[in-house]
Design a protein that fits this description.
Elements (H helix, E strand, L loop, with lengths): L5 H13 L8 E4 L3 H13 L5 E4 L2 H9 L4 E2 L9 E4 L3 E2 L5 E2 L6 H9 L4 E6 L12 E5 L4 H9 L6 E4 L1 E2 L2 E2 L7 E6 L6 H9 L4 E4 L1 E2 L6 E6 L2 E6 L1
Parallel strand pairs: 1-2, 1-4, 2-3, 4-7, 7-15
Antiparallel strand pairs: 5-6, 6-14, 8-12, 8-13, 9-12, 10-11, 15-16
Helix pairs in contact: 1-2
The structure holds ribulose-5-phosphate.
């Protein structure tokens, strides 16, 4: 008997469904997180032969390599056919919040070099307006305190804090820190992403509007819904 939680069962379902959107011989960008881990496992089990993959984190690269799937670095491949990744939130235009796993910078880089972004998500990630999930922002450590002030100046309900791991600031694969920003309601994700991206010390903001999803495979108890944006 499987001990998988209902949410994990939905993640596994969409991860498997994504395989049908990948052609043999494709170059595949691979994201980061628990849904993507199901995707990597499904990819390995499928025996689908790929040209190769480019991954968005050390964790995903390690998982891919362990399962015998070839991993290349971003600069070795000009263009990827498809990028498959999860999301913390996705809304009806395909705009997303990402970075719950602290991999947002490389996720945006790999998404930018891909022809198509396929978001795989369980239905808990579907929202009408982005912002209930604390927005991850990768920052250069010396700018963190000032950037917390910049976010909190956006509204009295906004609170920003440094993400900790074992009591210390979490250090990303890029040797930077993460802020998590609560209390936002992001009504214009394109403008918000552009604005925050220009603040000195911001490496990457976890709003993916300019790099939005083209397709979302949304896991529901009734089956996988395929949404096009
Ligand atoms: C990692 C991400 C993930 O895609 C996001 O956090 C969703 O994760 P999960 O699939 O574990 O729910 O952006 O930086």
């Amino acid at each position: 008997m499987s001990s998988m939680s209902p949410q994990d069962a939905l993640k596994a379902q969409v991860a498997k469904a994504a395989l049908s959107l990948i052609a043999p011989g494709a170059w595949v960008g691979v994201g980061t997180g628990s849904t993507v881990n199901f995707f990597i496992d499904a990819l390995a089990a499928s025996g689908l032969s790929l040209a190769g993959t480019v991954s968005s984190s050390e964790a995903s690269s390690a998982r891919l390599s362990k399962l015998g799937i070839p991993v290349f670095s971003s600069h070795e491949v000009a263009l990827l056919d498809v990028y498959v990744d999860g999301a913390d939130e996705i809304e009806p235009h395909g705009y997303m919040i990402k970075g719950g796993g602290a991999a947002l910078t490389r996720e945006k880089i790999v998404a930018a070099q891909s022809k198509q972004f396929i978001c795989i998500a369980d239905e808990s990630k579907w929202v009408q307006t982005l912002g209930a999930f604390p927005l991850p922002v990768e920052v250069i450590p010396m700018a963190a305190a000032r950037l917390i002030q910049c976010f909190e100046a956006l509204g009295s309900q906004v609170q920003a804090s440094l993400r900790l791991k074992d009591g210390q600031p979490l250090v990303t694969d890029n040797a930077q820190h993460i802020l998590d920003v609560k209390g936002l309601e992001i009504h214009d994700p394109l403008a918000f992403e552009s604005m925050v991206s220009q603040w000195p010390g911001v490496v990457t903001v976890g709003v993916f509007a300019h790099q939005k999803a083209n397709v979302c495979l949304l896991g529901t108890p009734q089956g996988v819904r395929t949404l096009y944006f």
